[in-house]
Amino acid sequence: MMSAFLSQISETLEGIKADGLWKTEREITVAQGARTQVGDREVINLCANNYLGLANHPALIDAAKTAMDNHGYGMASVRFICGTQDLHRDLERKLAQFLGHDDTILFAACFDANAAVFEPLLGPEDAIISDSLNHASIIDGIRLCKAKRYRYANSDMADLEAKLQAARNDGARHVMIATDGVFSMDGYLAKLTEIRALADKYDAQLMVDDCHATGFMGPNGAGTPAHAGIHADIVTGTLGKAMGGAIGGYIAASQPVIDLMRQRARPYLFSNALPPSVVAAGLTAIDLVEQGDDLRKQLFENTVYWRAGLEKLGFDLLPGEHPIVPVMLYDAVKAQDMAARLFELGVLVSGFFFPVVPKGQARIRTQMNAALTRADLDAALAAFEQAGRDTGVLS
Ligand SMILES: *Cc1c(COP(=O)(O)O)cnc(C)c1O
Questions:
Q1: Which residues surround ligand 1 with Cβ inside 6 Å?
Q2: Dist. CA 36–CA 370, nearest whole Å
Q3: What distance in Å separates the CA atoms of residue 177 and residue 164, rounded to the nearest whole number?
Q4: Which of 73, 372, 53, 104 is nearest to 238 (CA)?
Q5: For residue 239, with 0-12 CB atoms within 10 Å meaning exposed, 13-18 middle and 19 or more buried, which class applies?
Q6: What CATH code would you report for 24-52+292-391?
Q7: What CATH number is given for 73-290 in this structure?
Q8: Catalytic residue at 94?
Q9: pTM, two decimal places
Q10: pLDDT digit string, tens, across residues 289-319
């Protein structure tokens, strides 16, 4: 029995390797930062979601240490039994204020927030209309919900409207549109102004997952809805990217939605509360973000400089304003060769290829952050030029 089971798994593993889809993990031996260390090699890190460079910020480390002294290490409870400290509610209120919603509710991660958010709100009489490039956690959250599902082609507003009409024609009671604020393989922003207008036209709710935007996109870093000048009915997000980069997710919405989540959301009711160190550092991260105009300025200056440098070298980039800057190699093997060569040259990047991106659309996704210096960027550009020549990407 057991051996047939394990040999089947081994076959699957061999298949993953044979398809060239095997993922390996590099072990970083120091803190996450603009420069980091993998084994004994120091590398410039261009693949962390550390947009504001807060992942190793002394103020966050201090806040976490102080909270451990005052509030202990772990909660050993879900929130509703005995896992809620004053800090948890402080963070929920502060996040709500920062994002411009009535209230928020914390989760262990945004993956959990997205797994949680749909099921209590929508039933079989309702409809969810989802962008085809939405994050895996949105897709899984929608699977856990009984609402009828519709999918529109990425950022295709005519297709979204067709799906809204279909949902209305099918007699949906409530309709919800779900989209990423930023599509993370391309760095493209969702067309939130147009999506909001269509949501209003068809009386639909708008849910935005803003993981790759909160903290740095829009005025005060309040995210893509603020950037587009619209209000999303529901926003999910993470503390694991720009907001310090540790862990933790949340839903922000109107009071009744959050109240119902506290009663019904399964990843909230049946999973441990965030530890006080993470919650306290989250409070400090919001302070830094609210006073973070200089960090955001640095981030976007770096992004402009990096883009211009790569273009000048002759690389093919996807257009955009987001600190995600994808370098298109199209061919999966080329993307892997280029990433491997860059690592030898002291630059940490990741190649992305099918099935993460469509076939023939392989790329190296570079990500800027505010902690990278001009010297880091110049060194990384020199490495890209060298690696580009060595792999035949540049002539
Ligand atoms: C990173 C990410 C998540 C998951 O967030 P975690 O807090 O790491 O679980 C969800 N949605 C999107 C769009 C993301 O980029």
A1: 109-111, 114, 135, 137, 180, 184, 209, 211-212, 238, 240, 249
A2: 15
A3: 9
A4: 104
A5: buried
A6: 3.90.1150.10
A7: 3.40.640.10
A8: no
A9: 0.97
A10: 999 999 999 999 999 999 999 999 999 999 9
